[in-house]
Amino acid sequence: MSELFYDAAPNATRVAPGRKPQRVYPDKPEAVTLFGTCVVDLFFPEAGLDAIRLLEREGIRVEFPQEQSCCGQPAWTSGYREEARAVARAQLDILDRSGLPVVVPSGSCAGMFRHHYQALFADQPDMLKRVQALAERTFELTEFLLYVCKVQLTDNGAPRKIALHTSCSARREMNTHLHARELLKQLGRVERVDHDHESECCGFGGTFSVRMPEVSGAMVKDKTRSLLDSGAIEMVTADGGCLMNINGSLEKQREAFRGRHLASFLWERSNVPGKGGVA
Q: Which of 107, 132, 165, 206 could cysteine-pair with 174, CB 3.0–4.6 Å?
């Protein structure tokens, strides 16, 4: 067995990584750039619009560069480093034009900007400076609403029991599970129920679900079963890739239960018709 891990560090030298310093958040800006993500743009455009509505209600002007595309995560996690760099450079050129804070309605894509771009360009000093600057001004949507806007939501909906799905990479890299829980806690008529697979991967993993469909299918089956057994009547999540995968599995199982993006859920619960947001 030890031969399988010939390059692993001895147990005596294995230590947990040090905690990163707590992020210092800026004052609420006058304007931001929304990086919509390719999944939201193609499959859940209403979630992108609801993200804009939430931000505009806080008095923030939202810019949405039409040329934006993918953050490059699928190429990066599949080992296509040069292809990922090409995609990343294109996004940097777009996002650097304004230099505005970047708000992303996906923890995994925000994590790509915040963490993985620095690994991608670690050997290119000039590019590294640019991606480090981008990392400092990148925020996942719920993080931005909670800590920069300091939003206080008023629940205008009927009592509802929901389950929260938190993307595994977004949990690790952006703490989205904590941000989402805090925002949902502000909704007085919403009960968030725990389910026993909340922290586990849904099996999507971008190209993982294509390269290893049997394993991915088994993982999402466990996830959907946990959600169905939770007693919730719907699921919310801040990650479009997970949402697409979980809803796709539920549809294949011919289950009525569905999930939706957290941005849409927050907007629906807290919106007063006729006030704020894009039409």
A: 107
